[in-house]
Amino acid sequence: MTAPVRVLVCDDQALIRTGFATIIDAQPDLEVVGECGDGRAAVDLARRLDPDMVVMDVRMPILDGIEATRLLAGAGVAQPVKVLVVTTFNLDEYVYEALRAGASGFLLKDAPPAQLLHGIRTVASGAALLAPEVTRQLVGRYAARIRPAGSKADDIALTPRELEVLRLIADGLSNGEIAAALVISPETVKTYVSRILTKLDLRDRVQAVVYAYRRGLVT
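Structure tokens predicted for Response regulator (219 residues):
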């Protein structure tokens, strides 16, 4: 049997933290290995317990979820931990900053239990969880603030088709929607996505979306 996914739950509200832990522990393929109420404790526990992933709140005392995420999954971290951010606001600037800090996705706290479990399994598998319908809202709202001046598509080491796929990813399209838009197979789209991530040294689709906005590929 496959070992269960080991999850660390971090939220400063005890009721929410306990609720998440109860839902997660009820699944045969998931296991809560620790709980905490602030970002500093999350970093310390993650380094000590070595969980497969962390379910991370954003607004917490001592150290917020953004900084905790950066310390656990940010650039330069030798052994990054997968982080799923859970927040109250779907257009919260802090969520976007958490994605830039290295989080692999986000969910709303009022999401039903099934979505929470799906999110945990998705992130634990190495995929990104950034709902297509909110991608443009979430990233687009803050991209103009951090987009460098003078960025050109010509400077990016991608083929014209790969650039086209990257723009569609940034627009929030799923693989199936990209396949339909370009009249190619979903398998071909997966190949393009893989090439894009490899060429740009990006971890997942979340980073690809942020990259596209930072380079001015979408407006």
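The two ends are 47 Å apart (CA to CA).
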